[in-house]
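Appendix B: complex inputs.
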Amino acid sequence: MRKLLALAALLALVVASPAWAAKPKGQAKAEVNFGINVAQRGLWREAIYRWQKAVQLDPTYAAAWNNLAIGYEHEGQFDSARDAYERAVKLDPNNNLIRQNYEFFKEINDRANRDPNR
Amino acid sequence: MTARTATRIASLALLAFAAGCTSFYEITVETPIKAKLDTTAFQRVLVAGFVAGGSDDVDANIETVRLLRSQLRTKSNLKVVETDPLQLMEIAARQAKDPSAAPGAVAQPPTVPPVAQPPAGAGVQDLAAQPIRQDPAGLPKQVRDEKDLQAYEQIFADVGFWKKLGEEYQSPLIVTGTVLFTPLAKSGYVQQDRETIDPYGRHVVEAERAWKDRKGFSLSPKFVFIDGRTGTVISSETFHEETLYDAAQNTPPLSSYFELMDRLIPRFLGTLSSQKIRGTRVLLK
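Resulting structure:
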């Protein structure tokens, strides 16, 4: 029984441990998570700031670029959103969720940029 | 410490672990789309009237003016000018007969002998009220297709006419254009569901292609936006929508007209006012 308890406590410690956060990749992940948290509360500017920090810490972090693109999109910064989406797709070309986000973005962006004198 | 407590702690730890493993979150985004036209210089909008044709069952001029005004009243910041819709075809016909009769007529050689001049100071509405005494030069009396509409396009370039109209209504943004609402009849293969019962007595739905005669309507509006201060065209936007029904179905033309206008109204409004488009995206960890 004591062994089971110790195992459970260890598992909880591993999950909650901030040890991994000491390295840049870990810090980037922490920033991404924090960004998601605040975006879910509607604090998009704070979320963008966090995701910008995440991509500075780890420029190869496709999820961070994806989230940053969504943040820019929400703020109407379409050029920045497109750049961020393209970075995300380039870094993780097989990620269908990123591709799907990008497709939705392109659809809206095309509509916004459609020439009125078609 | 009992076994039950240990199980609870382990479950909590597993739950926390599972939450940590969740790698994506769906989130609602509201993407702001800027208005295509900068309307900050205008406080008012005048939906003046349209050169309309196609079906005789719907007065596309009157209906379009009514619909656009009601939409703009609630979905734009501009004050909507309330006035009778202009009968642009009559005005264009009169101008074609006598170019000098137009308020801002540019010097053009008359194609037919000039008729009586309107009294000095006659407004655009006065001109519209005058009956047409003879067939207009080169303009079809009824608009049936795109070619007929093209003959009337010149009126949108009549800077003097629109400037005069703008002066009457305190320099609004003027919305005008053409609307063609025509009946359609098309036959072709359509996909439909066929319900059958399999040997085990279960209902099975199968998709099948069937040849159908269909009829409906097409709507082709061209919205022209004119600066009421200068009379010049700022922008124009063309749309096309179609709807088809089973040939046996009897749908009133006016219902079809509203169904088609409903589809393109958001795009029309997007020209004049900024909008937010709701959608979902996936945030990743």
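Residues 13-17 of chain A have pLDDT under 50 and may be disordered.
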